[in-house]
Amino acid sequence: MRVARALVDGAPRLILTDGVTAVVAPAEHDDPLALLGVDGSEWPSIDLDTVDFLPPIARPGKIIAVGLNYVDHTLETGFTAPAAPLTFAKYPSSLTGHGSDILVPDTIATQVDYEVELAVVIGRRCGGTEPATVDDIAAYTVSNDVSARDVQFADGQWTRAKSFDGFTPLGPWLVPAAEVADPHALRLWTTVNGELLQDDSTASLVFDLPALLAYIGRGTTLEPGDIILTGTPAGAGGFRTPPRYLQHGDVVEVGVDGIGRLSNRIQFASQLKETA
Fold it and tell me: 77 falls in which pLDDT band (50, 70, 90)?
């Protein structure tokens, strides 16, 4: 069973699905990782069209992202391919859910970009003094590493430009790791207003999951619920000719086949004020 978090009658609840029917867990269940693979068929069914999805992990201790981890994306950026995984942090406050609007602070950021990513959710304490491995993965989900390119390149570092509120859509479903036969053979894609702009496979990862976990966990303890974003393929808007930045009202959808899809609408804060 897959697990999501959503607002049900105004309160956060956990929802399980087998891909056909969905059920809502009793209110005392608040740990999505504990319900992965649980048979909740005896719980009340729910219509997914009646809920507002939340990020499946409410407040991860860490969001660790990986840059330049697809060969073609590295080439399109003009950066030198890293000799080791290039990691940076995203603030947990940047998380948002499937269906939520992404509010862009366009007085300081206008060159807003999309990046589909396979996201890994850690299931148990690992790393630090012991190697982290793929056995420490509890689940996979989908993320969009929304990026303000003008802020990113002006700052000379990546965290702030990728951590504005709502700049990390995540979910909607946590898919148990045991249900994913090969995480290195998953198609991932992005559309903007229905136009396909990214389309690749996790087979193209430069550093695969074992390599990422071994590197990230070296000297850093990973905790249950920590999230690793594994990188984005070619096709990001900021590196197209001409650039294709997200505009007010755009609907950006990212997906990983077999894992799920996320859809969010872009809203520029200044334009919302003008119409208020």
Answer: confident
Q: Can you spell out the DSSP letters for the chain? A: -EEEEEEETTEEEEEEE-SS-EEE--TT---GGGGTT---TTSPB--GGG-EEE-SSSS-S-EEEEES-BHHHHHHHTPPPPSS-EEEE--GGGEE-TT-EEEE-TTT---EE--EEEEEEE-S-EEBTS---GGGEEEEEEEE--EEHHHHHHHTSSTGGG-STT-EEB-S-BEEGGG-S-TTS-EEEEEETTEEEEEEEGGGBSS-HHHHHHHHTBS-EE-TT-EEE----S--GGGSSS-----TT-EEEEEETTTEEEEEEEEEHHHHHHH-
Give the pLDDT of residue 222.
Answer: 98
Q: Render pLDDT for 226-266 as a digit per residue (tens, 0 to 9).
A: 999 999 999 999 999 999 999 999 999 999 999 999 999 99
Please tell me the total number of residues recorded for the chain in this structure: 276
Q: Is 64 exposed, middle or buried (0-12, 13-18, 19+ CB in 10 A)?
A: buried
Which tokens go with 94? 């940047």
Domains of the chain: 2-54 (no CATH), 63-275 (3.90.850.10)
Report the 10 Å Cβ neighbour count for 97.
Answer: 21
Judge residue 80's burial from the number of C-beta atoms within 10 Å of its C-beta, 0-12 exposed, 13-18 middle, 19 or more buried: exposed
Angle at 103 between CA 59 and CA 54, to 5 degrees: 35
